[in-house]
Amino acid sequence: MRWFETGKDESCKKGKNAPKGLTATNRELQEKITAAATAEVFSSYDEACNKATSPIRMGYEYRINAVWPTKRFDVVVLDHGHNDRSPDKEKRNDSLGSLHPATIAIKAIKLGLVTEVTLSDQHGLVKNDDITLRTPGIPQMDFWTGEVSSVNGTNITVMLDSSSFVGTYSAGGTAVKYDKTKVYDAYNLIISDIYHMNARYGGGPVMIVLMTPPTEWTHGKNDGSIAAINDAIYRIAVKWGLQLYNMTDDLKIGADNLRTLLPDSVHPTTTAARQVIADHIAAWAKSGGSRNKTCP
């Protein structure tokens, strides 16, 4: 879920399946791909690197937004968090970010091919910052999530064609800024974006389901990092009122049966293991689902 634009080893040798980060934008990924063409180190963003998934297809603009206009989602399952946890116990709180971020008041909105937003003084936003806008009075624009295109004093622009949107903004709107290297910020961004796509293109309410990892054990050990990320995911579900499937608790995978369902100690690499896990998920869904109160 998290996205690190800098400070990560992006060599092909170390990260054939990189980049990871649903919150990466098309612009950010394309800049990495372009830079890889002339990089001295063979990069995981180079098309010649044997990746599981093309980098440009990893971000939410491709995986969620590009699909929604022609194929609306009724349910979105976010099975994330596995790689968002911090194995360093001392850094776990620092990795969380803000579950309830500060808001910036919106003074005015001008609809058009590019949307202009006037914010309160001292908003602190700069070009390419990641934000969500709440827009009472303009339902189709509500929860808009993306990057700031330009900043001119208290005025910012975003690349949103709102010229056909119905409604007029008067007051009560807010903007929030995200730090996508943080867990709460990354989840808040994606959840907001899903709600925007639903508001923009219509239809019934969309259900969002959060999932925890399959076990607290990984690579043959339990260092507490998965329990910590599970707690964070639970808090996100409570904040947004979302369904949460606590797969960690349901599967009850421990040291004794770790390799039965996760043969490489991390992944369900056999058909039999995947079937067991799929059956658990299906049974939970068929029961109507619920937030599992035994989650930490």
Break the fold down into its secondary structure elements and pairings:
Elements: H1 26-36, H2 60-65, E1 75-78, E2 104-110, E3 115-119, E4 130-134, E5 144-152, E6 155-158, E7 174-177, H3 183-201, E8 207-211, H4 225-240, E9 243-245, H5 247-251, H6 258-261, H7 271-286
Parallel strand pairs: 1-8, 8-9
Antiparallel strand pairs: 2-3, 2-7, 3-6, 4-5, 4-7, 5-6
List keywords for this structure.
single chain; globular; 296 residues; Rossmann fold; Elongation Factor Tu (Ef-tu), domain 3; 3 domains; 9 strands; alpha+beta; three-stranded parallel beta sheet; 7 helices; six-stranded antiparallel barrel
Would you write up a description of this structure?
- This protein is α+β, with helices and mostly antiparallel strands and 296 residues long.
- It folds into 3 domains: 1-53, no CATH class; 67-92 and 183-296, Rossmann fold (3-Layer(aba) Sandwich); 104-177, Beta Barrel (Elongation Factor Tu (Ef-tu), domain 3).
- Helices cover 26% and strands 16% of the residues.
- Helix 4 links the parallel strand 8 and strand 9.
- The mean pLDDT is 92.
Briefly summarize what is shown.
This protein has helices at residues 26-36, 60-65, 183-201, 225-240, 247-251, 258-261, 271-286, and strands spanning 75-78, 104-110, 115-119, 130-134, 144-152, 155-158, 174-177, 207-211, 243-245.
